[in-house]
Predict the structure.
Amino acid sequence: MAEHTVRADIAAAVVPADADPGRFSAAGLVQPGVVNFADDPAAEREVLLRAQLIARMGSWTVEPGTGRVYLSEGLRRLCGLPAASTTEDLIDLVHAEDRDVLTEFSARLRTDRTAAPVELDVRDQTGERSFLVRATAEWDDAGELAAVHGTVQDVTKIRALERQLSQDGRLFRETQRVARMGTWEWDTETGECLWSSMLYELAGVDPGTKITYADYLRIVHPDDRTWVDQRWQELATARRPVECEHRVVRPDGTRRVFRVRGEAADSERAIMIGTCQDVTEQRSTETRMQRSSKRFTDLVAITPVGIALFDDAERLVDANDALCSLLGMGLERLRGMTAEQLTHPDDREARRGSSSAFHSGQRVLATAAGKPVYCELNATVSVTDDGRRFWLVVFADVTDRRRTAERLRYQATHDELTGLPGRAAVKELLAALLGGSDHERIALLFCDVDNFKRVNDSLGHDVGDELITALARRLERGLPPSCTVARMSGDEYVVICSDVAEAGGVEVLANQVASLLRTAVPVRGQLLRVSASIGAAVPSGPETTGADLLRFADAAMFAAKARGTGRVSLASDALIASANSQMLLEGQLREAIANDQLVLHYQPVVGPDGTVLSAEALVRWPHPERGLLMPGDFLPVAEQGDLQGELDRWVLRTAFSEAAEWPQLCGGVLGGGVAIAVNLAGLVPGDPDFVDIVSSAVAATGIAWDRVILELVETSLIDLPSRSREAMAELVERGVRFAVDDFGTGYSSLARLKELPAQIIKIDRRFVSGVATDASDFAVARALVDMARAMGRSCVAEGVENATQFHVLRGVGVDAYQGWLLSRPIPAKEFREVLKLGPVHIPSGA
């Protein structure tokens, strides 16, 4: 298709062929001759084609009436189209997303009759090239669209440059916004200033407001205005860069701090340019940091704990007065000392080869006098202004706390009376010895002073304490160095031998200990002859634990005591097997208590006429393998396993619960007042929670307070401290009665009966059994009854087995009776039936 030809008579400038190329320059153009392209159309087309190629542009014309389309050769080359291409081929080159816009472009040309050209940017199919399309419409005299003339120009590089410029401008504006920095220009001759949008915002001035240098000075803080003006005048005259920081007062009255930099734009013009940054927040932060640093410095100076700075080589750089005082050294002496030099030699030696850091844990420091100071260290790492790392270490003096802890540990692991190691220390020492390689050389002796209770009860606890202390000193002095003497409790000692061979063997050692404890000890002017039962044990193998060894020796001690006083027994295989059996039974008993697998039997206590006044709760254990076990079968196990307290609590809860349901009427006799008596062994008034435990059991079961009788053995009521008496008095006020069980067996005189804080005295069966045949027993029984009556206490006779005993005791005035003559201990269900039958049958006799 023929190329559309531009109208003729277009002037052009050409260079003659014989002209000197060097003369063709911007400074000296050769005056060209004027060529009329009407005489040479081919030359005209050539010039136009070259111009289009240079401008990366092509032209086109469409005549709607004739359907003729003209595409210039420059356009075809620009778009890579062949000579026979049509407008459809050209449109196919447009990106799919731009087709709709191209349709709108065509519609505008058909409707817009203005002479202004219509423009449109489109992309090629790849989206990588951009083209600017311009077109104008030509209308005929009839007002019809005669032709559309247009150009297509490749503006890919122009648009990329525009985008880059736009992005640079956006980034520059964002940078100013983030940095809170604006730019300015100052004409020193006219005083006019140009501010960026951000600078208007920073100064609080409406954008676009005409600004002069004088306007700028007016917002400078009055106190800063004079010297700020001087600095900028120096810039105007000397043209050297200036930087200053000053305060401004914005039109709304707020105060800010600006950091301003300026310099001459060039060496010829009187134009200064620069930046202005709002640094108010930075200066505020710096001020706060300075104040905080000052407070920190002051705090470090006055804090009572030592604080020091160390560099990476663990050399002391600085320290507060507290650390200097703690170590007794001045700062100049401390400065430069290493962590190792500050450490006490003993601790330094102990840490040799260790990689423990100086900045944590505990460390023993040395004072100027060489004394140890125990310190707890806490540290944090920080960085100086020049980037160097340092350690801030706090030294808390824990010397006194350590001594207190050691004293408390000593008190916790040692007996207060004798100063000997206690139960906890024994466990630790046995664990350490049995965990070593020489465990087979260890021996353990368990010693129990014979009849020690008699000393306590007859001579008092103070005498007993002096005797225990004297025996402890005797053991310490008389045993070899490989032996450690400890006190387990009351009248029990333990001797741990780490090398029994050095002591001559376990038998020799045991006999030596027995000899030391078989002696006469002078106490308060009296000579007390004592002896001890001793059980000895050695590990049966590497698996033997400290608890096993104590158990074996304890069992051997009981075996020795069964043979008489002052005896020695070695733990044999049979004895160890028995001890293991006892341990198994202890575990089963613990489980039975926890799971309510025990039962209670009740033995009635009746008045002279047979009326049931109360009943004593007696515990039984229906063992799954051994049948019904009596208290004598498992109470020793409970005592050794420290289960008596748990057992007492179980009996209290169960007895109170069952007694609360006893029938109100028993065979026509009011029976709701039948009391329940519980014998306590592990739970005694001296326990801190004694009153709370009893109160909780009463509250949980709903039993009346005046139906509760608590029985205690005589020895537990002798020399009671005031706290225990107060606890008993509190319960008595509520209605509880206390009974002295087995009175007469505690080796106390009748004169002490008055001291017992109890309302009921139970005469032991050993006096009751001979009351009808032995004049002494009769005399004791009658004396007890008479004294009890005189003191307002009631008497109960235990172990009444025949009618003669009953009638003799009734004759001397006993208030109540308990024994197989009247009823054996019976299960709870049977006892309920007994209550329903009324008074118990009283045998005839004199």
Residues 156-179 form the longest helix (24 residues). Confidence is low (pLDDT under 50) at residues 1-31, 665-671. The chain is about 40% helix and 25% strand.
